[in-house]
Amino acid sequence: MSVPQVPSRTVLVTGCSSGIGAATALVLREAGWQVFPTARKPADLDALRGAGFAPLAMDVADPASVETAVRDLLAQTGGSLGALVNNAGFCQAGAMEDVSRDALRAQFEVNLFGPHQLTRALLPVFRGQGCGRIVNISSVFGRISAPMVGSYCASKFALEAISDALRIELRNTGVWVALVEPGAILSRFRRNAAEALDRSIDRTRSGFGEVYAHEIERRRRQIKKADFFTRPPEVVARKILHALESPRPRRRYLVTLPAHLAEWAVRFIPQAWTDPLLARRVPERRPRPEGPR
């Protein structure tokens, strides 16, 4: 399998306010790419400008925002684009019994529907060129589902499914779709997950209410450092660079030891064995107050 090289070293990277997105923007620019990073908040856009980028305002959960950003991007690139990195995302934590329909919808808007809309909007450009690269940032939780983060797992499983389907649909077009599946990465991901949990879960109606309260405060105070299991975001950025530049890009890039272990477990260990292990992650539940939720 050989994929044509992209004619333009221009790339759109979503979710560049911090973490993987910010690191990817820097790594790709150092490799000679013209990077158009996106962010939602004015302060984050100002920070990207201060770093020498020409960022685009985009909220992937807002269809109108996606459309506007695509128009602005193509106006600046003359209608061409070498690659797209769908990185923007967040984690909706919480037991499935506590996640409302609205909260689940918000999870999918950001992690699935937004990237799908953006990809569809740019596919005519890639098809017209006869080449292009699309990199979707998934997760180890796109391969194995875990308790208390089921909503996030569901969105990443879905992203994996549409990425595989799209890659096959685009066979022989010169457009390649790759997935990157990180494990624990040093970023604001955990803190942002705590904020989402605080916003969307009614702790007063949950048997896990005290657990949630403790976890939210712990994540807000936590200062993580890179270690054997938690890697800096640049390791993900380098995998993305390979997916964009290699004449033989992979279908999947696993990042961190836990990601490799999860892949191995999915392939070779029966769920009858993994279920009891994962069940240890479920905290003690207290009876919740009765009433409509």
Brief rundown of the structure:
By secondary structure, the protein is of the alpha/beta class. The protein is built from 10 helices and 7 strands.
Please characterize this protein's 3D structure:
This protein is an alpha/beta fold. It has helices at 19-30, 42-50, 63-77, 101-129, 150-169, 189-200, 209-221, 234-245, 257-268, 271-279; strands spanning 10-13, 34-39, 56-57, 83-86, 132-137, 175-182, 252-255. Helix 1 (19-30) links the parallel strand 1 (10-13) and strand 2. Helix 3 (63-77) runs parallel beside helix 4. 42% of the residues are buried.
* CATH second-level architecture: 3-Layer(aba) Sandwich
Strand order of the largest sheet: 3-2-1-4-5-6-7
Please state the CA-atom Rg, rounded to the nearest Å. 19 Å
Average pLDDT, rounded to a whole number, is 94
- The amount of helix comes to 40-55%
Can you summarize the main beta sheet? 7 strands, parallel
Number of DSSP-assigned strands: 7
| Shape summary | globular
β-strand amount? 5-15%
The domain tally reads 1
The stretches of 5 or more residues where confidence is low (pLDDT under 50) are: none
SSE pattern, N- to C-terminal: EHEHEHEHEHEHHHEHH
What is CATH's topology name? Rossmann fold
The CATH homologous superfamily is called NAD(P)-binding Rossmann-like Domain
Number of helices in the DSSP assignment? 10
Structural class: alpha/beta
Euclidean distance between termini CA atoms: 52 Å
